[in-house]
């Protein structure tokens, strides 16, 4: 049976509209590799409005990254609360993000690390709200990747302009819920140093979307793991030397 990316995208979009969560993608529409994942992502992204950024991560410092496009409707730059009822689940991850200051359009020659760093304007503390269009997060990993890599929303904290001196794996991070510490440690991102992730996006992950553009926010993977929280949770993520960001799940 030929792979049907359109059927997968239609199922994911219908779940978003109806809030009838999926047990699985339809037969013949379950991705078998990252190329099929990306085909589904692109079809869904075409229906979700303007691109405003990316999430990117990797299982280890040497692993091939994975990514998903983010949309303007799901990015927030202040502490305005979210309604838990607008999500299926509300998982919380503290992450380090970057905002592009210049375009990196697709080209034949790969972008160097130095070129990528020169194109980044600012670093930001971020909070990702993890969500899913499936009944749970414990299903087929490739299907979850096709589902915008389980993205719900992204809260972007204040900008740090002189970010080049920051070494993210060495940055202490604290995540608190209603003032109580949930996670406190140093580093924590399985991908290790995150600039390689942004470089991979510029050279590979974002190519079919026209590359990276000035103003896009790129969040680079959880430093705290994914923690599910109930309504009534005030969330604060602090990265020493970078800044803090807050939100609330009501």
From TrEMBL:
GO terms for cellular component: cytoplasm. Residues 91-249 form the Fumarylacetoacetase-like C-terminal domain. InterPro entries: Fumarylacetoacetase-like_C (IPR011234), Fumarylacetoacetase_C_sf (IPR036663), Hydratase-Decarb/MhpD_sf (IPR050772). The keyword Lyase applies. Signal peptide: none annotated. It comes from the Bacteria. Keywords: Lyase. GO terms for molecular function: 2-oxopent-4-enoate hydratase activity. This is 2-keto-4-pentenoate hydratase.
């Amino acid at each position: 049976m030929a792979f049907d990316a359109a059927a997968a995208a239609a199922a994911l979009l219908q779940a978003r509209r109806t809030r009838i969560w999926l047990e699985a993608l339809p037969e013949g529409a379950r991705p078998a590799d990252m190329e099929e994942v990306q085909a589904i992502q692109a079809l869904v992204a075409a229906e979700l409005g303007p691109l405003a950024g990316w999430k990117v991560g990797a299982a280890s410092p040497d692993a091939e990254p994975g990514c998903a496009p983010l949309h303007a409707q799901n990015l927030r730059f202040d502490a305005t609360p979210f309604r838990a009822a607008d999500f299926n689940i509300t998982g919380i991850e503290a992450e380090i993000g970057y905002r592009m200051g210049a375009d990196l359009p697709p080209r034949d020659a790969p972008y160097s690390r130095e070129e990528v760093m020169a194109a980044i304007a600012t670093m930001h503390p971020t909070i990702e709200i993890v969500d899913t269009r499936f009944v749970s997060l414990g299903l087929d990993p490739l299907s979850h990747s096709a589902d915008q890599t389980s993205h719900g929303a992204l809260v972007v904290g204040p900008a740090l302009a002189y970010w080049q001196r920051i070494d993210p794996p060495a940055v202490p991070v604290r995540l608190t819920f209603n003032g109580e510490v949930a996670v406190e440690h140093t580093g924590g991102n399985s991908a290790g140093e995150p600039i390689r992730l942004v470089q991979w996006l510029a050279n590979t992950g974002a190519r079919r979307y026209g590359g990276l553009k000035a103003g896009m926010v790129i969040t680079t993977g959880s430093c705290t793991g994914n923690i599910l929280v109930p309504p009534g949770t005030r969330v604060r993520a602090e990265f020493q030397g970078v800044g803090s960001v807050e939100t609330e799940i009501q």
